[in-house]
């Protein structure tokens, strides 16, 4: 019966999958819906049915159907990883698949299954046996198995993949996982002869088809070994690592990076790349197991690095291989024996490997013409860039060469004479030479050999191409130049860089690179050069396009350089002129250029502050006019240029407000009108489309919210609110944020601030709150805040603040009372669910959520009780008990204490209506009420200001810190004379574990600024909470029975509230 049901399910699944491949859209939709319903049943047989179809259980299954089934299974397991009884059938299917695409699709869910449960000892012996009998490892006629070698190796790779990262990085010496040891012992270590055999075949087989099979098998095996040693080092692999490394070196030594390898040998190149990655891992992570191989590894890496002469004609994979060869050399140089091994090759490296990688080549010129953004991203990165794409794309040979050059430049070699030996004649000169870095002895002299190109020299000339490399090299010497006197850097820049800006016709490649290196070296430049450098870079910023070449990279790199100069406090003498130049450029180029200029304007304003803010009112309208054409029709998302423009506008206006808080009323009004018009264009739907249910996009919502908050700040009357269309903008704002689901810590501060500004606007301009706080606004904001309660810690606290504001600050008219009730229920439900999820360690968040429920309970106790009971049986009692619990803690503010007091009064009053006085919860809440009443009285009477004492203490601490710094500086000076000891493996592991722990602590703590969380009870704050408590005690004196009050509590009550003696009666006295 079970087999018949399984067959029926497979047949039904096959029919539905065929339907999804139909040409008829209705049939496709119907089949997709049926598959969703079938998957939603949770039947464990459904994924098995998909697997059976993907594996080709029927001869009639087409490749298209099998691929569709494999794709659906992959997506299904991504959603529901808790699939039982799938692991073994999936592994079996992977071993028998006969199509590369199917293998690629099904290995992905297998990764997920293995990551969830990587303890699989019964599979390893089976896989070992299968591997031994596959045709590439044991060729026919000895092989008795039809298993595919590549499939089996792919399965091995999937099993080792989870071990590439430490399972518990907080442990300094985490032991090798048992499953990885088993894999290494049973398969990886015994596979060393197989590995050797594969390498021999790859290097000797001439038949292309056979060679490609061996190359693919070797690549997968290399990846498996890499995953096994990237973090851990299984003991079984230690003995075979030297043999494996020798085979890796054979692959690298046979590598020739020229056009003959392109296309035909792509897999070979991937193997070489993996070999170098393994060597990087061994040198940095497991050096003691590779010490005897360092010389051979270095020699191989240098041979590959010297092939950088072909870099202009190589593809990205070959470029990456050269980059890795530079990285291997860099890692070796940073080891203990590194100087001894590498120093003799410095001159050869510089002349034959590093410099060819830095020099201008044909590929650079092609990228400049065809994809300027790619050229800038690779060669002229700055803080204004937003790099995209795969991280590996950024690891170019040029960047790795620059990194190696930087390490060589600062290296000084080991001490020539032990510290405790006596000086001998001639030692003085040796010590002087020893204290000189290779930057002084080798790098700078080498670069000085290349002369500055003459005016108008052709780009293709060797002089221009070489000097391009010189400029690239200078840009990578920050660490070296930081150790030199400022005059040293000034002379270098004045003699070797600035003359390029004086040439009447200088090739754009050199000017752009000069801009970049000035930005890179900004921290090393003396202040005396600021004016000259600003003039040169500003001139480059307005460079027009030439007839045959775009000068956008020149302008983009100039903008990045200016931003870097400002960040390092190299300021212009004339701020206004610089600002006018940049503002004048906006709109003259494409969107990318305008985006960069918007960011540069923001940097100028942030750096200039008072010196620049007085000019802000004069350029706000110009910036808005530049943004406006880039804002698309609703609901299309904004392009990047519009988002950058709005961010720039926020910086402009906020800086102006901070620098000129008493700005003229007319200027405020003018700025508010400009901002309002901009947001109206972005958010308000034209009258002709009002009937359509269109919501503006959430593009740049944080910055746009800040603009709306500034408009509200500048509004001082109902007439202005009407003119600026604040009501309409707030409704649109609420619609947008109601549908926001992406929570980012830096992306929501503006939203919360605008909600607060909107709530306070009514009282600020003496306007009925309902005129601004409409039901539409409340509904949208409530949805946003409810989601915020369930977001990260900081967002939760900010959302809790807004809950109190929304419930208590606005003046709600009768027709909006229903809306407020629904809002209170929504907030209480969200807070209760989040509260139940939290661990006890998040005390601040715990209390904030309890107080949110309290705020809701004060207004609608019956509704909140009913809501909590719906969420959990006894939920209202659970919340009340936790409220009583936090009352025993040290409530920090008067408002918190008042809210708890008022809530406990209502809880006690309602408990008295439904239970006897002996009820434990009732008695506990009453005791808590008395405790927090005492605390509230203390807070009300506490008027002492300890700020002066705190300041004195801080000053004393600062003095102590300064003296400590001086001592540390002295010690640093002494230490600098000693030999720099190489970091041991234990020190490395301890440092990594400490960093991992710091990261976890940072994520757990999520420090929140004090002003992000506060409680405003609105009109409730005017209630005399202690009088309310007094009335309750007077009305229900039966609560004050002696057995429920401790002697200490009674004494504190009498001391704080002497009048309570008349309410407690003789029973308390007799108890005492």
UniProtKB/TrEMBL annotation:
<feature type="region of interest" description="Disordered">
    <location>
        <begin position="945"/>
        <end position="984"/>
    </location>
</feature>
<dbReference type="InterPro" id="IPR011989">
    <property type="entry name" value="ARM-like"/>
</dbReference>
<dbReference type="GO" id="GO:0005829">
    <property type="term" value="C:cytosol"/>
</dbReference>
<protein>
    <recommendedName>
        <fullName>Importin N-terminal domain-containing protein</fullName>
    </recommendedName>
</protein>
<dbReference type="GO" id="GO:0006606">
    <property type="term" value="P:protein import into nucleus"/>
</dbReference>
<dbReference type="GO" id="GO:0005635">
    <property type="term" value="C:nuclear envelope"/>
</dbReference>
<dbReference type="InterPro" id="IPR016024">
    <property type="entry name" value="ARM-type_fold"/>
</dbReference>
<dbReference type="GO" id="GO:0006611">
    <property type="term" value="P:protein export from nucleus"/>
</dbReference>
<feature type="region of interest" description="Disordered">
    <location>
        <begin position="415"/>
        <end position="435"/>
    </location>
</feature>
<dbReference type="GO" id="GO:0005049">
    <property type="term" value="F:nuclear export signal receptor activity"/>
</dbReference>
């Amino acid at each position: 019966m079970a087999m018949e049901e399984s067959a029926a399910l497979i047949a039904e699944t096959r029919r539905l999958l065929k339907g999804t491949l139909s040409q008829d859209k209705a049939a496709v939709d119907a089949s997709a819906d049926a598959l969703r319903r079938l998957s939603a049943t949770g039947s464990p047989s459904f994924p098995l049915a998909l697997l059976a179809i993907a594996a080709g259980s029927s001869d009639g299954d087409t490749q298209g159907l099998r691929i569709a089934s494999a794709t659906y299974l992959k997506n299904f397991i991504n959603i529901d990883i808790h699939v039982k009884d799938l692991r073994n059938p999936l592994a079996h299917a992977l071993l028998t698949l006969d199509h590369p695409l199917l293998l690629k699709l099904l290995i992905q869910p297998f990764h997920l299954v293995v990551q969830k449960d990587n303890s699989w000892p019964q599979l390893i012996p089976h896989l070992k046996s299968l591997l031994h009998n596959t045709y590439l490892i044991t060729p026919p006629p000895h092989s008795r198995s039809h298993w595919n070698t590549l499939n089996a190796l792919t399965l091995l790779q999937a099993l080792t993949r989870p071990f590439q990262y430490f399972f518990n990085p907080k442990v300094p010496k985490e032991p090798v996982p048992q499953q990885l040891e088993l894999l290494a012992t049973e398969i990886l270590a015994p596979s060393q002869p197989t590995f050797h055999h594969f390498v021999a075949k790859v290097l000797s087989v001439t038949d292309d088809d056979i060679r490609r099979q061996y190359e693919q098998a070797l690549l997968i095996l290399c990846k498996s070994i890499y995953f096994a040693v990237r973090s851990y080092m299984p003991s079984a692999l230690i003995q075979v690592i030297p043999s494996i490394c020798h085979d890796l070196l054979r692959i690298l030594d046979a590598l020739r990076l020229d056009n003959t390898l392109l296309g035909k040998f792509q897999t070979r190149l991937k193997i070489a790349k993996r070999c170098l990655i393994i060597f990087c891992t061994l040198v940095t992570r497991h050096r003691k197991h590779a010490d005897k191989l360092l010389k051979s590894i270095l020699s191989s890496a240098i041979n590959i690095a010297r092939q950088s002469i072909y870099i202009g004609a190589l593809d990205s994979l070959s470029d990456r291989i050269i980059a890795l060869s530079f990285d291997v050399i860099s890692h070796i140089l940073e080891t203990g024996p590194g100087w001894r091994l590498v120093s003799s090759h410095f001159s050869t490296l510089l002349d034959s490997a590093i410099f060819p990688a830095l020099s201008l080549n044909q590929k650079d010129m092609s990228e400049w013409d065809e994809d300027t953004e790619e050229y800038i991203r690779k060669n002229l990165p700055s803080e204004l860039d937003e790099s995209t794409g795969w991280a590996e794309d950024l690891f170019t040979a040029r960047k790795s060469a620059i990194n190696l050059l930087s390490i060589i430049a600062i290296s000084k070699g080991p001490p020539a004479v032990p510290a405790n030996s006596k000086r001998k004649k001639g030692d003085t000169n040796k010590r002087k030479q020893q204290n000189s870095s290779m930057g002084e002895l080798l790098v700078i002299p080498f670069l000085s050999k290349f002369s500055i190109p003459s005016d108008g020299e052709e780009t293709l000339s060797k002089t221009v191409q070489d000097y391009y490399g010189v400029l690239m090299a200078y840009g990578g010497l920050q660490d070296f130049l930081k150790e030199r006197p400022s005059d040293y850097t000034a002379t270098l820049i004045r003699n070797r860089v600035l003359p390029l800006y004086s040439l009447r016709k200088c090739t754009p490649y050199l000017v752009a690179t000069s801009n970049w290196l000035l930005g890179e070296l900004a921290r090393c430049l003396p202040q005396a050069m600021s004016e000259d450098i600003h003039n040169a870079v500003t001139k480059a910023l307005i460079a027009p396009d030439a007839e045959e070449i775009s000068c956008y990279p020149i302008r983009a790199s100039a903008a990045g350089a200016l931003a870097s100069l400002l960040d390092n406090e190299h300021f212009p003498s004339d701020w206004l002129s610089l600002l006018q130049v940049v503002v004048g450029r906006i709109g003259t180029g494409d969107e990318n250029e305008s985006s960069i200029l918007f960011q540069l304007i923001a940097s100028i304003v942030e750096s200039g502050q008072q010196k620049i803010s007085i000019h802000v009112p004069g350029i706000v309208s110009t910036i808005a006019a530049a943004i406006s054409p880039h804002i698309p029709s609703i609901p299309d998302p904004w392009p990047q240029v519009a988002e950058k423009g709005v961010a720039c506008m926020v910086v402009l206006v906020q800086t102006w407000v901070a620098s000129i808080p008493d700005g003229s009323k007319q200027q405020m009004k003018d700025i508010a009108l400009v901002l309002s018009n901009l947001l109206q264009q972005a958010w308000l739907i034209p009258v002709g489309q009002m009937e359509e249910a269109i919501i503006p996009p959430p593009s740049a919502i944080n910055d746009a919210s800040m603009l709306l908050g500034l408009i509200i700040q500048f509004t001082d009357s109902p007439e202005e609110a009407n003119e600026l269309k604040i009501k309409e903008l707030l409704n649109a704002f609420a619609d947008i944020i109601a549908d926001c689901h992406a929570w980012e810590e830096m992306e929501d501060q503006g939203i919360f601030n605008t909600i607060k500004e909107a709530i306070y606007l009514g009282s600020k301009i003496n306007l009925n709150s309902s005129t601004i706080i409409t039901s539409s606004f409340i509904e949208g904001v409530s949805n946003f805040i409810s989601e915020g309660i369930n977001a990260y810690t900081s967002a939760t606290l900010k959302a809790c603040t807004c809950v109190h504001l929304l419930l208590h600050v606005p003046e709600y008219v009768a027709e909006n009372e229903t809306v407020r009730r629904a809002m209170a229920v929504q907030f209480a439900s969200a807070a209760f669910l989040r509260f139940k999820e939290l661990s006890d360690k998040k005390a601040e968040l715990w209390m904030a959520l309890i107080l949110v429920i309290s705020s809701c309970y004060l207004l609608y106790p019956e509704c909140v009780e009913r809501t909590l009971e719906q969420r959990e049986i006894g939920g209202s009692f659970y919340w009340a008990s936790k409220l009583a619990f936090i009352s025993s803690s040290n409530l920090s503010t008067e408002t918190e204490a008042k809210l708890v007091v008022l809530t406990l009064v209502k809880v006690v009053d309602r408990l008295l209506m439904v239970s006897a006085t002996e009820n434990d919860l009732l008695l506990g809440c009453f005791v808590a009420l008395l405790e927090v009443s005492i605390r509230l009285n203390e807070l009300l009477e506490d008027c002492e200001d300890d700020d002066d004492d705190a300041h004195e203490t801080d000053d004393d601490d600062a003095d102590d810190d300064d003296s400590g710094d001086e001592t540390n500086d002295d010690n640093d000076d002494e230490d600098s004379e000693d030999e720099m000891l190489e970091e041991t493996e234990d020190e490395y592991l301890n440092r990594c574990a400490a960093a991992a722990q710091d990261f976890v602590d940072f994520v757990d703590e999520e420090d929140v600024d004090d002003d992000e969380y506060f409680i405003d009870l609105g009109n409730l704050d005017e209630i005399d909470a202690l009088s309310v408590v007094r009335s309750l005690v007077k009305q229900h004196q039966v609560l004050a029975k002696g057995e429920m009050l401790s002697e200490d509590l009674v004494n504190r009550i009498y001391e704080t509230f002497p009048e309570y003696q008349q309410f407690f009666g003789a029973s308390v006295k007799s108890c005492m």
